Amino acid sequence: MRIDELRRVKKISQAEMARRLHISLSKYVRLEKFPWKCTIEEGMKIADIFGVQFDYLIFLPEKVTKV
Q: Which residues lie below 8 Å from residue 61, measured CB to CB, with a gap of 6+?
């Protein structure tokens, strides 16, 4: 899961992602570094923000160029 790459492609800051997910910035930074610690609910919200399916996040290709 390369949440950080999706976020950069969409030009969304970490602070904005944290705000949209209703979590602290520090927790969001940890989710980018350790995505396996993400709950299903958080994963679903992240997928919704990026406009992708949850399974796309799980099976995300190595490098993201466009979403």
A: none
